[in-house]
Amino acid sequence: MEIKFDGKRALVTGAGKGIGRATAKALVKCGAETYALSRTQADLDSLKAEVPTIHTVCVDITDWDKLRGVVKTLCPIDLLVNNAGVCTLAPFLEVSKEDFDYTYDTNVKALINISQVVLKDIIDRGSSCAVVNVSSIASSIAVFNHIVYASSKAAVDMLTKIMTLELGSKNIRVNSVNPTVVMTDMGKRNNWSDPAKSGPVLALTPQGRFAEVHEVVDAILFLLSDKASMINGTCLPVDGGRLVQ
Ligand code: NAP
User: 11, 21, 38: which to mutate for ligand 1, most atoms within 8 A of CB?
Assistant: First the structure.
């Protein structure tokens, strides 16, 4: 299935590393004029060196007012990938206010902020937009020490559904992809390469492995594309079947 985004403008958050970086590169390959937003300039510089036609934007998405101003200058955006995310792990009884604020500011509030700016502009123009929010299978299964991260991703799933409900009549589609573990920097930081941690999860995964970055990117591209023109408000697991049990 060939996906083309010629003439479209795309914005990917968290595009300095991992899934976001690969998604931004894939969007360029599909013909989209692509804005790669992240907070570490060195990552954006290396991305620009790899893909000279990409536009890079350095901003910390937890800065509500600054982010709003920056995103306004990028509009119109036809394809939005809310990918930037952080994962802090702690048992429920030890979660701090700081853990909670940092994770929700990044994973939930920034997603609302960016989407408001992009989608108000789309509605004013009478144009259309496809949005993909990068969630996680942690949104729907209980995993030890994941209280803050998993609940933030459960919030992302519900944001996806309510955005669909309120904006579906305005030529706006909003979906989530919900990956299992991917061995990006985040996957490595959270120690998923340790067999003692990964073994029990893999044992419950019919395909017996974690996801590759390109498998998540393909799901994102599909949901952004017209091939998914009647798919709206869904949370698509990319999990090798982990969620069946
Ligand atoms: P990653 O390798 O850690 O990359 C995340 C990117 O987001 C980095 O470029 C990071 O920049 C950027 N970012 C984080 N906070 C930011 C902020 N406040 N402002 C601007 N940029 C920010 O993570 P990943 O594995 O690619 O994860 C991407 C998404 O997939 C996340 O939403 C994550 O929750 C989700 N996900 C990941 C997995 C997994 O196992 N990897 C599984 C399911 C879902 P810096 O490096 O400069 O901080």
Answer: 38
- For residue 2, tell me if it sits in a domain: no
pTM above 0.90?
Answer: yes
Residue 1, pLDDT > 90, answer no
Is 16 close to ligand 1, i.e. is its CB under 6 Å away? yes
CATH number for position 87: 3.40.50.720
Q: Tell me the Cα Rg of the chain.
A: 17
Ligand 1 atom closest to 87 (CA): 34
Q: Are the C-beta atoms of 166 and 116 separated by less than 8 Å?
A: no
Q: How many independent structural domains does the chain possess?
A: 1
Percent of the chain with pLDDT over 70: 100
Ligand 1 atom closest to Cα of residue 61: 19
For residue 27, being part of any structural domain is answered with: yes
Measured on CA atoms in the order 91, 93, 94, 97, is the torsion positive or negative?
Answer: positive
Residue 74 lies in a domain: yes
